[in-house]
Write a structure and sequence with these properties.
Strands 2-1-3-4 form a four-stranded mixed sheet, covered by helices on one side. It is globular, with a radius of gyration of 14 Å. It has two helices and four strands; from the N terminus they run E-H-E-E-H-E. About 40% of the residues lie in helices and about 25% in strands. The protein has helices spanning about 15-35, 70-90, and strands spanning about 5-10, 45-50, 60-65, 95-100.
Length: about 110
Amino acid sequence: MPNVKIYVDETLFPACRDPLVAALGPMRDYLCREFRVDVPACQFAVLPVVAMPDQPRVNVEIQILTKADRTRDRVTAIGLHLRGMLAEATGTHVAIRISGLDAETYVALK
């Protein structure tokens, strides 16, 4: 775990597609290291979307299983670093939302 969905404004996507694809591996490596998970636990999706002009052109949703060492401060710091990586790849401001999942009720069928 984490599950990462990256939504990119469709008008921006053609220009940033290659740098974004190139950044996926380093982003996954970073998240795996920081959240202490193995690569097969990660799920990434990049989706071009129709975005409203008054909102960030790149939005990221991350879901992680809650654990004692994943404090709000630690998760925020990880999100800030990831936002920097994505901003560099896309050339624009990035909004990130991170939410915790309850391990007792989370089900994954792969």
